[in-house]
Protein 1
Amino acid sequence: MHSSSGDPAAIVASAVRKFADIPGGLLPLLHEIQAGLGFIPFDGVAAIASGMGLSRAEVHGVISFYHDFHDQPRGQKTIHVCRAEACQAMGSRKLEAHVKTRLGIDYGGTTKDGRFSLEPVYCLGNCACSPSIRIGDDVFARVDADRFDELLGGL
Amino acid sequence: MIRIFVPIDTTACALGADAVAAEVALLANNRGMAVEIIRTGSRGAFWLEPMVEIEADGNRYAFGPVSPGDVAGLFGAGFPGICQHPLFLGKLTDIEWLARQDRLTFKRAGVTDPLSLDDYRQNGGYEGLNNALAMSPADIVAAVTESGLRGRGGAAFPTGIKWLTVLNTPADQKYVTANADEGDSGTFADRLLMEADPFQLLEGMTICAMAVGATEGFIYLRSEYPKALQVLKQAVATAEAANLLGNNIGGSGRDFHLQIRVGAGAYICGEETSMLESLEGKRGLVRFKPPLPAIEGLFGKPTVVNNVLTLAAVSTVLAKGAAYYQAYGSGRSRGTLSVQLAGNIRRGGLVEVPFGASLRGLVEDFGGGTASGRPLRAIQVGGPLGAYLPESQWDTPLDYEAFSAVGAMLGHGGIVVFDDSVDMLEQARFAMEFCAVESCGKCTPCRIGSVRGVELIDKIGNNENISGNLELLEELCETLDAGSLCAMGGLTPMPVRSAVKHFPQDFKRGLKNGPGGQINV
């Protein structure tokens, strides 16, 4: 969950100050910016790079390597659908097709009203009660199409 | 004051435990009952979650699985006392599924409040560290070596040998790192340990630091575990306040500082050298070995990289002695294995048993067969890089060497069960697709070969030159196997080959459910 209300440049500058002297601080720094803004703005990359003593290419390389980091604004909440084997064994392929249809977006997409982004996830560690999804920081177990609609209706 | 216990781990909460706890509190209050609701970790009997426990005559009794709508009926029947109700499970020690386990690492899980240091200490916690603080580093390492403990992350490397290498490598700084990037599908043991008994991980890491001479440590936790993160943060703060982390631990004159770092959704960062790169703030590209991390690891310094369960087990070894731990197990696989029963299974959850139990025994006796009630068809053991086992191999004992001998691997102990509706061609395709999505990209066979693998399997699914394409697929598997630095590319062939070998009929009739579509990179 992110606030997306702060001034991007100020949030980037504050995160850089906080993590500049911490060995290996780039990942926590990026997490902090993303928690504040919902994404890592392109305009912030130069400030991150100079603050961390890295090239812009190195910073961009890290942002693009990790599934969690995004360089574009996101929906207010992210819905993760587990695509891994334990969930497949309990019908997650059907569930993911339903979720995509219901939200009208594919993985990586954001609904037109800006409320939800959809992402795949490869295991939520809830594999004895599959299929699993994560909405924000909450994990839900034994989710089928009806249960998904019910959860969505409650948001 | 009546004490009522409701689990707080991810799975129990995913099944509604928070709402159950709230309903219990509300109805008790309405009835003017003075109750204390204690949120415990889960015992891992996930098929019974949310499982609510009460105390009576010095024992714990359980009800489950309890939904919020059941709570009023429970109170009506006499809850929170022992009462006649369809959800009453009886005395905890009489629940066979739990009683038949040998819980060493998970002995406190579900019993105690995960964040109560007093609970931890009253149940044997920190005895191992106390013993370790009175021992020389070499003696601690020797105890771990004698216990026979091998890495629980999947590679099964002898822990004592790894520690000895770090101990014997002179350096101005050494590190202890816990690999908590538990990415394998069908595994949740690390998560449960961290959410239900976090001090055990902290204790194990501190013992390790004392053994190898490290003063800094990191837990590398995957971002998919937000609850574990909250629990660990609080546990670290509590341990620091109690002088169990930080400077001059317990007055010993030795220091150990522990930080938690959160991953960012990359499966490959569970590979140890990729994890180290990620801890250094870089792309999680796999490193060449040698140098071993034990000699040149984090920031180029000698580093222990151990799985969460390995480090946790060390607390038992130091508390009870190497011989105690070593007495469990079979062959060269010593101690207990934390099996995770997952997928299409009736009684899923965490089963801790000595090595050597048969796969069939676990899946049928503990697991109770499939959740769907349909016949079992395939069992994938060891995560997404593990083999799919057909019925002819289900009597294989759960032992590293025995699994290796049948072309499979035990890995981190995840067991994913599939019923007869599974299409093994789809599963083989997914193995290649997963590799394409999660490859770090360093080795060409892994990065490109996995994409070619998806394409080949799609052709086979479309009935295009099946025998020729199966032959090509086997050659591709050889290339991945031989030409990749780490297990991602090296082991992706394992699920693919096992599917082709043991379920050949699925590769000879086209895709049951139509073409697989795009790779979700």
Protein 2
Amino acid sequence: MRGSAFYDQLDAAVPGGVVGSNYEALDPWIEVASERMADVCRWLAKSSPVRFDSLQCITVVDWLETDPKKAAKVSWQPRLELVYHLWSTSSRVSLVLKTTLPRWKNDTPGQLPEIPSVTGVWRGADWHEREVYDLSGVWFTGHPDLRRILCPEDWEGYPLRKDYEQPVEYHGIRGR
Amino acid sequence: MASVIGDDPRIIEFDVRTDEMLVNMGPQHPSTHGVLRLVLRTDGEIVSEVEPHIGYLHRCAEKIGENITHRQWIPYTDRMDYLAAMNMNLGWSLTVEKLMKYEVSEKARHLRVLISELCRIASHLVGMGAYGLDLGSFSPFLYAFREREKILDLFEETCGARLTYSYITIGGLTADLPTGWLAKCEAFLDQFTPIIQEYHTLLTTNAIFVKRTAGIGVLSRDMAIDYGCSGPVLRGSGVDQDMRRDGEAIYTAMYDGYAFEVAVMKNGHYPRDHEYPAVPADAVVGDCWHRFFVRMVEVVQSMDLVRQAIDRYSACKGTIGEPLKLTEKMPVGDAYLETECPKGQMGFYVVSDGSAIPWRVRARSSSFSNLAVTHELCRGCLIADVPAVVGSLDIVMGEIDR
């Protein structure tokens, strides 16, 4: 099912939704256009021949080399990579979706990149998206209640970003 | 008072009128299993809304993981689900081994099954004992801890620690079993087998316990899947899924040749249910009682697996192999693996850029998803049932907050 037939079906069902794939990786993945994420997920969960009825995990990988010496050598561009791990309870197979977002919207530091929320597809996505917003700084449009979940509400910055700097002081508690 | 005023029912209505009240439960409430804070919106005794607030135990484990080597992160996995640290070690070790395409020796594989199943028993004993405590019954807690203590003694002999073991590690295990350990383990199993009956008497068939749990907090099959619940919470709702059987090859290969049946109710029956007390008439699939009972079935199942693992391990020639060195460089790539931990499916994700230090590590916590469903289960229940529902999910805050 991880073959190209499934890919073609997905491509036909959500035109412009998928932009690439890698079947050689340890966990083969399909790359999705970020703005079509919710549509792709809705098809996978509700209409696809294999129903991916459960969202296991959303991860953000921040591709940014902060060391200028090493940054000159790396081949990739700075970006955020979102990884969705889906699972089908009926067919007992997993699927990995990846998508790319700019680190900041319009390249303006502080403006969060946006992606459609998948809370309408899986209710369990609610907390996962809140965690991603809290720690990695991604804004999920359409999320009913997007606020911090692990850090306090008045926390500043997004700790899992590579260029995150620990605050010097928080409510009288010394940081660094 | 109403009768003095008259028989107008509207006046009585006004007299017993209650206001909505916000009740704060936790973060130090003993029945919230750690530092979990629940805000309840109540009308009289009825809870209309529950909002869990988490993060009190957030220790930045994922951020720390980006600054140390793969093997150095093992002790941090201990501190996630500290009641089942062996299973956490195993999950992370297997994930990194998957990334490296590394295979441990057969002997190490059987030893890993032995240790992780023993740890599952220990974890379920705490889950069971603490659940009794939540419902106001103190004795099961002591009975459970008495037996758990013996498992911890066994673990102490293998690695020196009683809670945070770091015993299973990338490339195998830190040490082989000491001489005479297997005999002690078998003696424990023989002594433990009849004690299960005590637990059933204390809780499973206890009339008060059944009244407090049967038909309470019913989690439907679809909702459990929708929220990504896993482990006993998912199986308690009648979903036949266990990563030890359905997971990825690197994990299921450990259990190749082991005989076990997934602890789930199929066609109205649990596997080998003639050995257990009958399901109470009030219990419905997906309620607190079934979640609890799945754990009790799994304790017996794990004992069975431990016995099989002892046989296989002793029959195995060769060594358990050497753990990888701390500064082992990893291939470029990423790997995600879910293992069946006592609390549910614990997923680890590692992204490597080819160096000895991972680019990104991620822990997908099972309790996190299991707790997310609380607000659905507690809607419309009584205040007294909130601890019963939360306790039946058997959460560990160390794993939720990471």
